[in-house]
Amino acid sequence: MISHAPAPPAPQWPSASRSPKMVMALIGGATVARIVRDRRTYERLIIIAIVLAALAGLARESQARSQDRMAAWLERTLGR
User: Fold this and answer.
1) pLDDT (tens digit per residue) in 23-76
2) Domains in the chain: how many in total?
3) Which tens digit of pLDDT belongs to each residue from 6-22?
């Protein structure tokens, strides 16, 4: 029985591995440039900022209500 070992991978030039990275960098740069120039991007960012601010406000109010309920419960429990 004769077994054949797999052939070792062919050596690659250092520039061959940089080529796809450079292409991806160029595509990424072009995409970022297009997004930055797009008016809708700014509109979406403003909407996201408003939503996040509203959610943060709701979280603060909820926390304050929870603390008020806890303080009232402690007063009822320990005050008797």
Assistant:
1) 899 999 998 888 888 888 889 989 999 999 999 999 999 999 999 999 999 999
2) 1
3) 777 766 665 555 678 88
The one-letter code for the residue type at 23 is V
List the domain range (segments joined by +) for residue 51: 27-79
Q: Distance (Å, rounded) from C-alpha 61 to C-alpha 10?
A: 64
Instruction: Flag whether the pTM goes above 0.70.
Output: no
User: How many residues make up the chain in this entry?
Assistant: 80
Residue 21 lies in a domain: no
Tell me the H-state helices in the chain.
14-37, 39-79
Record the tokens describing residue 23, joined without a space.
């292409």
